[in-house]
Amino acid sequence: MSSSSTTTGNNVFEVGEYVTLLVSVQAQSCCSKSSPAISVPPPKPLLIATPSAKGDFPLLLFLHGYLLHNSFYSQLILHIASHGFIVIAPQLYTVAGPDTSEEIKAAAAITDWLSAGLQYVLPPDVRPSLTKLGLAGHSRGGKAAFALALGYTTTSLKFSALMGIDPVDGMDKGKQTPPPVLTYVPRSFDLDMAVLVVGSGLGEVKKNPLFPPCAPKGVNHEDFFNECRAPVSYFVVKDYGHVDMLDDDTKGFKGKATYCFCKNGKAREPMRRFVGGVVVAFMKAYLEGDHTDLMAIRGGKEIGVPVALQTVKFLV
């Protein structure tokens, strides 16, 4: 476990009041320092960001983007955890083809594991509120999150809030990866929960002529929003790209590639703070019943929003 520094502010775009920990859990029982030995190991390796203080905390299952490491989201999930949430970020795969079916099944299996195993890998006196469960995913992970919420496979726990962070359903309209999620029928998603969709203004812009945009029009955030029914909140961040919510320092070949294949903004920190803050505001609204921060962001009130917003829409 490792601690992160905190401040004691309530602004959702700043670090919250809780001291946080990162916990790594392997998919098999072991006795390494980084992974507690448990009798019910998870089906996939996990990175968990959690408050260290005593209390009952809502949960967020966060699914990573295509070919990315869950560790690339460490700063983001620690930000969310510092506001009083437990974030479970599985490593769904390291290499994958176009079909997302197996990662959707893996996400469902991890959801089912939460009841049996999560308590045993958390700090003492940190208790997960299994009835307050959110689901989020970035890029292809956003597509997988929507598929899981739409019932492509069943889970033993019920999600109460769904968040797509620049979700992508393929290479272009007509080139969806299987199984397709978008139907291109407005308000067709039959979701029994509130939805947040966050888009990047530069996601549909090519980084260079050799590669397609990372979030191309026809299969991106705009299409996901158009198929959601109320209640749904939709924000598009101007001047930032598809992977600008990742850690500043993403190591290895895959980490360096995140700076090469997608059009990026000038820095990642503002986009990461916005994504972390709006996710916190959304979960406070729909898991805890406090809509104050989400309504302030929707209404354009000054609460320290760290980015310029290109689009703000919502259906209630």
Structure report:
The chain is an alpha/beta fold and 316 residues long. The protein has a single domain, classed as Rossmann fold (3-Layer(aba) Sandwich), CATH 3.40.50. The protein has helices spanning 74-81, 101-117, 140-149, 221-226, 252-257, 269-288, 292-298; strands spanning 2-4, 20-25, 46-51, 55-63, 86-90, 126-138, 161-165, 194-200, 232-237, 309-315. The protein has a ten-stranded mixed β-sheet with strand order 1-2-3-5-4-6-7-8-9-10, with helices on both faces. Helix 2 (101-117) crosses helix 3 (140-149). The protein is globular, with a radius of gyration of 18 Å. Residues 1-8 and 29-36 have low confidence and may be disordered.
Keywords:
316 residues; alpha/beta; Rossmann fold; ten-stranded mixed β-sheet; 23% helix; 21% strand; globular
Strand content: 15-25%
Give the low-pLDDT segments. Answer: 1-8, 29-36
C-alpha end-to-end distance: 41 Å
Q: What is the number of beta strands? A: 10
Biggest sheet architecture: 10 strands, mixed
Structural class: alpha/beta
User: At the third CATH level, what is the topology name?
Assistant: Rossmann fold
CATH architecture: 3-Layer(aba) Sandwich
Top-tier CATH class: Alpha Beta
Tell me the number of helical segments per DSSP (H or I, 4 or more residues long). Answer: 7
The helix/strand series, from N terminus to C terminus, equals EEEEHEHEHEEHEHHHE
Q: In one word, what is the shape?
A: globular
Write down the Rg.
Answer: 18 Å
